[in-house]
Amino acid sequence: MSKQQAPVNKNDVVEVTIEDLTHDGAGVAKVDGYALFIPKALPGERLKAKVVKVKKGYGFGRVLNMIEASPDRVEAPCPVFNQCGGCQFQHMSYDAQLRYKQKQVQDVLERIGKITAVTVRPTIGMNEPWRYRNKAQVPVGEREGGLIAGFYQERSHRIIDMDECMIQHEENDKVIRQVKELARELGIRGYDEEKHRGTLRHVVARYGKNTGEIMVVLITRGEELPHKKTLIERIHTAIPHVKSIVQNVNPKRTNVIFGDKTKVLWGEEYIYDTIGDIKFAISARSFYQVNPEQTKVLYDQALEFANLTGSETVIDAYCGIGTISLFLAQQAKHVYGVEIVPEAISDAKRNARLNGFDNVQFAVGEAEKVMPWWYAQGVRADVIVVDPPRKGCDEALLKTILNMKPDRVVYVSCNPATLARDLRVFEDGGYETKDVQPVDMFPWTTHVECVAWLSR
Ligand code: SAH
């Protein structure tokens, strides 16, 4: 449909019914077949919307007034829900979110993967879906001469000063508040993104929920950190559970948070956390799931789907710091892990030693290159687990898995669309998708995590 043919014009007011949600959580309405995306509107709702943008084939609207609200609608509990881009679903009951996530996976499997024989299981949610995050990454700036730290306003880089986040663990909120206060007192300057001036760019707090250990990371524009000694001393006096204070230097004009250089200012290089019976060392830059409670649920589900008896050889592709690998190693004969980030692999090896596993081995590299090499060396696996980033598995990797012919494949996915695409490749290669289990790792956001398994 061309722009001229769009049945609405900018600033028109239209009465619509919301039919669905987009993957980023906006309501979808149709006006004579033309899709109008309306943020913060829920399926089933009848409302008046103002058209704010008209594009070829689709447009955007804003809710003007509600005619009939959805029974799933609730008052967003967070006072900054409408300004902050962090959560998208606080206007929807938790129950409805879980149902929606299940439906979204089901729809995408059918639409993209042409997989119709599987009924996606109901999403496993949290009993207490607030305060779940174990990591806070807070941007720091300056406003009228004072240091501020909070969050970026939705779709912008304007920092809103803020002391509390309802999905963040209280300990992390406390750490951020205290560091902010100390930095203000000592006159440390917040970073000015436009002028590329100032000192402190981000404060990152990491909390080992099951050990109580805290890490504070100060990300600075240059090496220099004024009043460093006093700051460090006051941080660890004010926050008794701090085990590690780290500085990371990021001199670039970029919105990537971390720079290349990291140094320990005080205490340890790592904090520890446990998932089930396994202990993990976490460094400032390690990837570690942010919702520890649901991580246990997810990994237990992956382990259940792997159905190990102790005699199997298992490959964990995209293994990060070896979290899933070590979970699998509890019940397998031998586990191979592969991961592209060298630091993550040294963490994985350390974690294996820390827990006394001698049946795991890790390799650094692209899974799509290392797996064919393993295959050429004669490595075969009974079970292969993959946990790729959002873009899903590389084609070469999928091909190698099909060549290796494992009995089972367990697929952990943070993106239902690429999961569906890859499951289709497995189905065409002689596998059958048996179960798909969504696990809610990120309540109040649109993110959907799943674990699926296939049998040959
Ligand atoms: N299984 C881990 C990590 C999953 S995140 C956990 O649960 O903690 C996905 C991981 O894939 C990241 O650690 C990322 O660095 C890694 N990765 C991305 N592309 C890769 C590739 N081509 N080959 C191997 N690993 C890759």
Descriptive account of the structure:
The structure is a single chain. By secondary structure, this protein is α/β, with parallel strands linked by helices. The chain has 3 domains: about 70 residues, Nucleic acid-binding proteins (OB fold (Dihydrolipoamide Acetyltransferase, E2P), Beta Barrel), CATH 2.40.50.140; about 190 residues, Vaccinia Virus protein VP39 (Rossmann fold), CATH 3.40.50; about 140 residues, OB fold (Dihydrolipoamide Acetyltransferase, E2P) (Beta Barrel), CATH 2.40.50. About 25% of the residues lie in helices and about 30% in strands. The strands form 4 sheets. A 7-stranded mixed sheet has the order 8-7-6-9-10-11-12, with helices on one face. The protein is globular and about 65 Å long. The protein starts with 12 loop residues before the first strand and ends with a strand. The relative contact order is 0.10. The site of S-adenosyl-L-homocysteine has 17 residues, from helix 5, strand 16 and helix 7.
